[in-house]
Specification:
The complex is a heterodimer of chains A (591) and B (394). Chain A has 19 helices and 17 strands. Chain A is α/β, with parallel strands linked by helices and 591 residues long. Chain B folds into 3 domains: 195 residues, 3-Layer(aba) Sandwich (Rossmann fold), CATH 3.40.50.11540; 73 residues, Ubiquitin-like (UB roll); 79 residues, NADH-ubiquinone oxidoreductase 51kDa subunit, iron-sulphur binding domain (de novo design (two linked rop proteins)), CATH 1.20.1440.230. Helix content of chain B is 42%, strand content 13%. In chain B, α10 runs antiparallel to α11. Classes of the chains: A alpha/beta (591), B alpha/beta (394).
């Protein structure tokens, strides 16, 4: 597209034809307030916050949707525009529940920020706010329509990014509200509890089901042995959640969690490494049965099972593909099962006194820990799940100075991590970690990528593919794979997962192994991560994840010394009896 | 003495198929040219030049172009499309078919107001009749041209008279306006190039083709083209549908309808203008009084604040709720009208923010509904309502 000339607030600018007024203004450094606009989503143009004046137009133009045309003359803070913005803001505030101190998003709310910026003090349109209406039984994602401004960012997220589409506007006029089919609760519809809607809500209408109170109570109970596990992506999100720039801050995070009073601070990375071993052997086993023994009952491609939003999605939408899922529990659930068996024994504590708390970048993990089958330790394997945001709020409440706190290390037995486990936090990470280990198991050699970095599965492309050809010389017992080409695919965001599953269901995909993460970018973009989110923010978090991988001494899951010890002392061997009891699971059709 | 000029509703109607026969002997471009030269503007109320719309759709790239008829006659006080369908459904079908030939479309849909279910058999029997006469369907009148028309019912939303909401509704979605651009002529129903025209517009097309552009233009008063149907209701001796030259005065229409002792006239429906007897010399034409078709007459005994309250209740009920100014604004305007009725508003200063709100709704709403729903508030408050403390400061 050629460049054209437009005038913004009296200054002539050359911009690319086809960009919107909003984009032209952003390039020119002119700020336009927005609410329904989100860089991840289609354009709705419904909030009318971004109204600007275009000379010659009878009405005001919305900047987010309107493309610039040659010689357009735009005013972004004329009297008309200023009045329009103030009026729109006042109208939104008039029916909004402005009990800000009680809101999860207090001080991180786009509506509040705009109200402050526009100095809205008196509201002539004040009316009684919408009634408070909490979602009562939703395990991970909560709603309160009294805080909703009907921007439909959640609706578009659910439909466009996730292909789930369980929430829609219902009713009309001033009675419109966002709800589900027949007004059912989010726990009664095909909601995956992924929480992506939370991350894109400009206000506090969507938030996680909080367990902060229960965790404080456990910490304050001297009779309990409270252990904490931290998911890979939390270490690159927690600083952001505390208002600091995006960075990896593993050591500070461990110190802060210990400061809160946890008895042990351990790492989900440990069970991520364990997942790679179990899942890797499961894949090799399936390949052996399918390729060597010609067993037609073996389902390929095998698909990862770490992402609970993805699991709920496939249970609802592709139940016929459930046999393709790896039987491995997610790292969170493996951790819980081991915390109340192996760890309790190692620490010499009564497993009934162990309280297992997960810090997750995820809201679906709250759903996962409540799945009825997740009690193989003899107890609820995981007791409470906190999001990255909830952990940040506890750190703030405790007055811990995260910025200046000294780095500390994880406790032993289940605290060792490898780079392979850390990259679980980014899309493609599980695949990369699996390839690093599986290739070495079957060939006896390191995977032939520079620095072990399997670049084709990294990055933010929605669906990624890679192929790894095996050498002619294989390790003993794996000769059947000599010269074979292993085909893999990776998808993140459920809309991409759906596109891939449609191909698998139609028999049009010849992959052996597929990694799916429910959230765009993988766990680093999870529904429990700091708000806001955008493609740039997720790229920064991914950068931090891969830095952490490079910085770690061990970069392959099978090199994790504590995982080796676990097998030597407790599990005996991958896919062994104990593994099956504690680390593997089954799925539920929800169609 | 004012007189009607009955063309669309006249006794002397052309033979069904005569206009189509003539059109099919012309090139599609010539058909569109004829319509453009007739200077007919959309009869639904927005007044967009019909020929230009057809030209744009004809020139648009994209397969399976669509001809949509807006028969969602929902503006309060209008019933002229109903009469046209009841009496001359064939003319509507013929107009759509000619439009299809002109823009290169083979598919038309009539989006019928939910409250008109009894018109479905009327339209369907007219479609059967046209097909029997080979004026619709495949190889029309022995040519290569084929065209099908389908009737679909709305679900009772006023906003679906707005063309992009109508399209959303036809696609099976919630009836809400789209952002423009893209305009329907480029990307409308299912992303196809689409024209949406009112019943009366299509019904006028056979007359334009047969009588010629110049004749049609000459039907109007002054520089205005064609005749126009008006649904007159309220405090008049003879309510009903009147056909007058476009550009006639409101006074002429009221004389025909035998209106006496008039306090106010609502022209163009609830979203139109409210005028006083001093304005009866104004013309019913684009550029002056909105000639959408609805003319409601209020006699001296009517309480105009109550009239305003009922209009605002209508808009609060019918806003789709998508954009902030319309969703919240209509509600707030109704609130303040109720406050005035309850004697809780003393003077103009208290009303000032609401006049400003009315202005922002006009400037900042997404579609025609929100852009016009505050007109009645401004007109009636300015012209008819008194406040205890006067209106100073508004």
């Amino acid at each position: 597209m050629p460049n054209i000339s437009v005038t913004i607030n009296g200054t002539s600018r050359s911009v690319r034809e086809g960009v919107t007024i909003l984009e032209a203004c952003q390039i020119a450094g002119v700020e336009i307030p927005t609410l329904c606009y989100h860089p991840d989503l289609s354009l709705a143009g419904n909030c009318r916050m971004c109204l600007v004046e275009v000379e010659g137009w009878k009405t005001l133009a919305i900047a987010c949707v309107t493309p610039v045309t040659p010689n357009m003359v735009i005013h972004t803070h004329s009297k008309k525009v200023r009045h329009a913005r103030r009026t729109v803001l006042k109208l939104l505030l008039a029916s909004h529940n402005v009990n800000c101190p009680e809101c999860e998003r207090n001080t991180n709310c786009e509506l509040q920020a705009l109200a402050e910026k526009h100095n809205i003090t008196i509201n002539e349109y004040q009316t009684s706010p919408k009634p408070v209406s909490f979602e009562e039984f939703s395990p991970g994602v909560m709603r309160d329509n009294s805080r909703c401004i009907l921007c439909t960012r959640c609706v578009r997220t659910c439909e466009e990014l996730q292909s789930v589409a369980v929430i829609k506007p219902i009713g009309r006029s001033s009675a419109v509200r966002i709800s589900t089919f027949m007004d059912r609760g989010l726990n009664e519809v095909a909601c995956t509890q992924c929480g992506q809607c939370i991350n894109r809500c400009p206000t506090g209408a969507l938030f996680e089901t909080s367990e902060v109170r229960q965790v404080w109570e456990a910490l304050e109970d001297p009779d309990k042995f409270v252990v904490c596990q931290t998911a890979p992506a939390v270490r690159v999100g927690i600083a952001e959640a505390l208002g600091l720039p995006t960075d990896r801050s593993t050591g500070q995070m461990v110190a802060a969690i210990r400061g809160l009073g946890f008895d042990r601070v351990l790492d989900t990375d440990f069970t991520a490494d364990l997942t790679i071993i179990e899942e890797g052997y499961e894949l090799i086993g399936r390949l052996q049965k399918a390729l060597l023994e010609g067993d037609a009952s073996v389902k390929l491609p095998m698909m990862t099972s770490c992402s609970p939003g993805w699991i709920k999605f496939i249970e609802h939408k592709y139940p016929e593909l459930l046999p393709n899922l790896s039987s491995c529990k997610s790292p969170q659930q493996m951790f819980g099962a081991l915390a109340k068996t192996y760890l309790a024994k190692k620490e010499g504590v009564d497993p009934s006194k162990v309280v297992c708390v997960s810090i997750m970048p995820c809201t679906a993990k709250k759903f996962e820990k409540d799945r009825p089958e997740m009690n193989s330790s003899g107890y609820r394997d995981v007791d409470y799940v906190l999001t990255t945001r909830e952990l940040a709020s506890m750190i703030q409440e405790a007055g811990i100075d995260f910025r200046h706190i000294g780095e500390e290390k994880y406790d032993r037995w289940m605290g060792a991590s490898t780079g392979a486990a850390v990259i679980f936090g980014a899309t493609g990470g599980v695949m990369e970690a699996a390839l690093r280990t599986a290739y070495e198991v079957v060939t006896g050699k390191e995977i032939p990528f520079n620095g072990l970095n399997v670049m084709p599965v990294r990055g933010m492309t929605g669906i990624k593919e890679a192929a790894v050809t095996m050498p002619e010389k294989m390790a003993h017992g794996y000769e059947f794979l000599a010269g074979a080409t292993l085909k893999v695919a990776v998808a993140h965001g459920l809309a991409n997962a759906k596109a891939l599953m449609d191909r698998v269901a139609a028999g049009e995909a010849d992959y052996h192994f597929i990694e799916i993460m429910a959230c765009p970018g993988g766990c680093l973009g999870g529904g429990g991560q700091p708000i806001p989110t955008s493609p740039e923010i997720r790229l920064k978090r991914a950068e931090a994840i891969y830095q952490e991988d490079s910085a770690l001494h061990y970069r392959k899951s099978h090199a994790n010394p504590e995982v080796q010890l676990l097998y030597a002392e407790f599990l005996e061997k991958p896919l062994g009896h104990h593994s099956h009891e504690l680390l593997h699971t089954h799925y539920t059709r929800r169609d | 003495m004012a007189e009607e000029k009955r063309i669309l509703l006249g006794e002397d109607q052309p033979q069904p198929g005569a206009a189509l026969t003539k059109a099919l002997k012309m090139s599609p471009a010539d058909v569109v040219f004829e319509v453009r030269e007739s200077a007919i503007q959309g009869r639904g109320g927005a007044g967009f030049p019909v020929g230009i719309k057809w030209n744009l759709a004809g020139a648009a790239s994209g397969a399976n172009k669509m001809v949509l008829c807006n028969a969602d006659e929902g503006e309060p006080g209008t019933f002229k499309d109903r009469v046209l369908i009841e009496r001359f459904a064939w003319k509507l079908l013929e107009g759509m078919t000619i439009a299809g030939y002109g823009i290169g479309s083979h598919e038309g849909i009539i989006y019928l107001r939910a409250e008109y279910p009894y018109l479905i058999p009327v339209l369907q029997s007219a479609i059967r009749d046209m097909k029997e006469k080979n004026l619709l369907g495949s190889r029309i009148l022995g040519t290569e041209f084929h065209f099908e028309i389908e009737v679909r019912s709305g679900a009772g939303a006023y906003v679906c008279g707005e063309e992009t909401s109508l399209i959303e509704s036809l696609e099976g979605k919630r009836g809400e306006p789209r952002n423009k651009p893209p305009f329907p002529v480029n990307s409308g129903y299912l992303g196809r190039p689409t024209i949406v025209n009112n019943v009366e517009t299509f019904a006028a097309v056979p007359h334009i083709i047969l009588g010629g552009a110049e004749w049609f233009q000459g039907l109007g008063a002054g520089k205005h083209a064609g005749t126009k149907l008006f649904s007159v209701s309220g405090d008049v001796g003879k309510p009903g549908v009147y056909e007058l030259p476009m550009g006639s005065t409101i006074g002429e229409l009221l004389e025909l309808a035998e209106a006496r002792d008039v306090q106010a006239v609502q022209v163009g429906g609830a979203s139109g203008s409210t005028i006083t007897p001093a304005e009866f010399g104004r013309t019913l034409a684009f550029g002056d009084l909105p000639p959408g078709g609805s003319v409601m007459v209020f006699g001296a005994g009517r309480n105009m604040l109550e009239v305003l309250e009922s209009f605002m209740e209508f808009f609060v009920h019918e806003s789709c709720g998508q954009c902030t100014p319309c969703r919240e604004g209509n509600r707030r305007l109704l609130d303040v009208v109720e406050s005035i009725a309850a004697g809780k508003v003393a003077g103009g200063a208290e009303l000032k923010p609401f006049f400003q709100l009315a202005e922002i709704m006009r400037l900042g709403s997404k579609c025609g509904l929100g852009q016009t729903s505050s007109n009645c508030f401004v007109d009636i408050m300015n012209k008819f309502v008194q406040l205890p403390g006067g209106k100073e400061g508004v």
